[in-house]
Amino acid sequence: MAALATSWLLAGASAARAQVTAEPSAVVFPDPAKFAHGLYTEGEVGAVSFFGKAGDDVSPGFAVGARVGYDLFRWLALQAHFLGSTHQISGDNPLNGQLIQTYQGLVEGKLTYRFGQTSIFGEGGIGVERLSTNALYVLMVEPRYRVGFVAGGGAGFDYHSLSRHFSVGVRAGYFVMAELTGSQELMATTYLRYTF
Amino acid sequence: MKGYRALGQLMTLLAPLALGSEGCQGMNTPIYFASPVMPALAVTGMDDAMGNPPRIENGVTLQFRNPTAAEQKALDAQTAALGFMVPWIQRDHVHIELVYQVTNSDSKDGTFGIDIDGHNEYTEYNEDIVAMTLGEGNDDPPQYIPLIPVTPQLLGAGQTVSGTVREDDFNEAELDLDAIGRWMAPFNAVLINNSQVNPIGLSMVPPNVVIPALIEVDVSFTATAQMTCTYDIRVRDDNDQLLHDAGDTLFSPTPTLFVPPAMMMTTN
Questions:
Q1: Do A64 and B29 touch (CB under 8 A)?
Q2: Contact B14, A115 (CB under 8 A)
Q3: Contact B30 A194 (CB under 8 A)
Q4: pLDDT value at position A10?
Q5: Distance from CA of B234 to the nearest CA of A (A)
């Protein structure tokens, strides 16, 4: 009886096949190729500080900004950058304590080097800056007009989330203001990026 | 994941709006006018030949443009409707503030005072003229009654102090000047009293009056020690009436200098 049962089981079994027993290759996780790229937008908050002549009369201030850009390649992007910041007039003058705002719009290029979830980037551009008041003219820091060219660049660090759309990062940039004779500004912000 | 996508898209929409709202704030941002460098408001602290504390003054004319044809037509229509002249530069649309800084460069403490006069498009007020009129026939020290007095302050040797003459101070002065110039108000009564506390002398002012703003600000500085005063004038120009376009022409009214009649000298 036992021999009969054994033969029945063996008769029903399928043919044996060879198995792959080698170690699987290492998988990059998350795969950067799966991160979204193309059109993106960023919102940022941080600070802007002036140096040079304007630095003597303008305190560092809070900044808020946004970028809209497009990844031409994984490593190259073009972006439009808008930033507003608010400051107090400082120094030994009657306007001490008065508020002044700056508005900047720039066109920038951005180079990115990615390794896994993180990347570093460098960017630079040129644009226009506008001051909200003529306070710096009254203080003889700037010429009569409140609109001028601004140019410069900076670098940053980006960390991509496990979502294919979101990343966060920090960046800093140094810009020269053409109309503010002998003045520069340093901006440092943290941002949240969404790639469509 | 849909929620994240919606958040990202919302951020895209809100970022330009946030910047846009900040930009709109810029539409009502002030314009500053620096005080003239010459003559600088600097006094030695030495009394003059009459034994009075030294005084020095200068002023800033705020340059406005003339109204356009459409604006002039609207002013004329409003004038006809109200039955009295409606000014081109109005207090409700031109907001003035003055910020100052006084430095005592002497080796002794001293007291300083700042007085503010000026003119609108109808009337000019000069406290020196008023003091001269009040002093006729007597040898008393000059009695200065400015449009806006800044409370005298004691300032230590080598010290610096800053201050602000606020928009509401100018609002009061602009009402007073219009009341004096166009509505026959007793000048010392309206200048000495705050209209919100005691509206004495303002009974002739129509309740629907359109008050002209100052278009020149004159500052007098006096001190009992060697001091300097610098100031800047801050103007918020709601209707973009300040002169800055090349095609605009300068608004140049010819205000009448206020001279107090002796009969108006009343006590309070």
A1: no
A2: no
A3: no
A4: 52
A5: 9
* Full set of structural domains in chain A with CATH: 34-195 (2.40.160.20)
Residue B15 corresponds to which amino acid?
A: A
Q: Tell me: the pLDDT tens digits for A93-152?
A: 999 999 999 999 999 999 999 988 999 999 999 999 998 998 988 888 877 767 889 999
More confident: B73 or A28 = B73
Based on its alpha-carbon atoms, the radius of gyration of chain A, rounded to whole angstroms, reads 28
Coil, strand or helix at B148? strand
Q: Could you give the CA distance from residue B15 to residue B10 in angstroms, rounded to a whole number? A: 9
Sign of CA dihedral A9, A12, A13, A15: positive
Q: Are A14 and A26 in contact (CB under 8 A)?
A: no
Domains of chain B plus CATH, in order, are 27-264 (2.60.120)
Q: Which residues of B touch A92 (CB under 8 A)?
A: 101, 160
CB-nearest to A66 from B8, B15, B101 is B15
B232 touches chain A (CB under 8 A): yes
The set of residues, in sequence order, having a beta carbon less than 8 Å from that of A117 and lying 6+ positions away, is: A30, A32, A159, A160, A161
Distance CA B219, CA B214 (A): 13
Q: How many CB atoms neighbour CB B75 within 10 A?
A: 17
Contact (CB<8Å) B11/A192: yes
Q: Are B5 and A101 an interchain contact pair (Cβ–Cβ within 8 Å)?
A: no
**Per-residue pLDDT tens over the stretch B23-47:** 444 445 799 999 887 667 899 888 8
pTM of the model: 0.81
* pLDDT tens-digit map of B159-215: 999 999 999 999 999 999 999 999 999 998 999 999 989 898 899 999 999 999 999
Task: Please tell me which residue of chain A has the smallest CA distance to B34.
Answer: A138
Give the B window 68-87 contacts with A, CB below 8 Å.
none
Distance CA B241, CA B173 (A): 21
Q: Establish if B34 touches chain A: CB-CB under 8 angstroms.
A: yes
Give the chain B residue nearest A131 (alpha carbons): B26
Alpha carbon distance B124, B114 (integer Å): 18
* Yes or no, beta carbons of B32 and A138 under 8 Å apart: yes
ipTM of the complex: 0.78
